[in-house]
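Closing statement on the pyridoxal-5'-phosphate sub-project.
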Amino acid sequence: MPTYARADIAFERGEGAFLFATDGRRYLDFAAGIAVNSLGHCHPHLVETLAGQARMLWHVSNLYRIPDQERLAERLVANSFADTVFFSNSGVEAWEGGVKLIRKYHSAAGTPRRWRVITVSGSFHGRTLAAIAAAKTPKLVDGFGPMVDGFDQVAFGNLNELRAAITDETAAIHVEPIQGEGGIRPHDLDYLRALREICDEFGLLLYFDEIQTGYGRTGKLFAHEWAGITPDVMCVAKGIGGGFPLGAFLATERAAQGMGLGSHGTTYGGNPLAMAVGNAVLDVMLEPGFLDRVTTVGGYLRHRLDAVVDRHPAIYELVRGVGLMLGLKARVPAGELIAGFRAEGLLTVPAADNVIRILPPLIIGEAEVDAAVAIIDRVSAAVAVASADGDTVDA
Ligand SMILES: *Cc1c(COP(=O)(O)O)cnc(C)c1O
């Protein structure tokens, strides 16, 4: 179905931060499959693990014990706020599992009247009926009505509006710590801390969507760690499998109290192939120094992008984001700049608010940053000249 505006490029091979197209061209991949290829392409440890597991056992159902699933869950619990984990195949499935858990919690806790979830405008949680109803973005919901009920939306960053939206039917507050599709819009850390306090005050669950922000992207395993608070529920995906389709939702024992036998399920989620890769990703990410290097190289990239904005004030407004989750907000159509970067061999991702998302694999070094910035500079200079000549930049 023609649901994507695809660039006319086909890749046949990847290595680290580079992709190689069928026409022989090499691209520096600062899109990483939209924050998925967290360890770059064909990381040797992932390739070895996947190939080894493929010779042993691909799939058994969740009717049996899956030792690697138990191990990955234990490792996630040991490295997060959570006590319990459910594995899915994708982000939105994990997300919706979290919403189900919230409703079930209040049902089990004797407050079944509480079932509505407060969300924030500009958010993105995936493409199922419930996820589009939560985000309410016109492009996502148009023609797909009537909407799933149960989501109340408030303005980004507005605590007064949020407090006013709480009723005796409110079950939870739900945000992405940094909006991804919404244009790399970070919530203030104080805002996130206030959400924790409000949830405690009103008996609500705090649910974070860390599908894009999680798994080392911001220099912490999970972005909420920067705020020094913990949620009750969290969904992750994208970087968790390094390119293998995998997601998970995590919760405290208390929040998950309703999720008893038979309350949820999946055919593929957490199967041996996925779990082998999931453990291999963590092997690398939990190595001492890995996350610190994300912060260091992210700081260097940020510094170099700030200088790009200074050099091309007519083209860019600002840089925002944390770690290796950065956004360049453009003053000219971002799509034109992204196409220009691509023509010069650099891949980036568009987002709302005319933002160019810079989401490189977490394994890059300064050399890749320098190469990317050189392309961005070159294209920006050409666009600046074209605008000065009166060529249409918004064609
Ligand atoms: C990508 C994304 C999703 C949806 O994940 P899928 O795997 O595409 O279903 C949900 N929430 C956020 C924040 C995302 O970035």
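The mean pLDDT is 97. With this model delivered, the sub-project is considered complete and its resources will be redirected to Aim 3.
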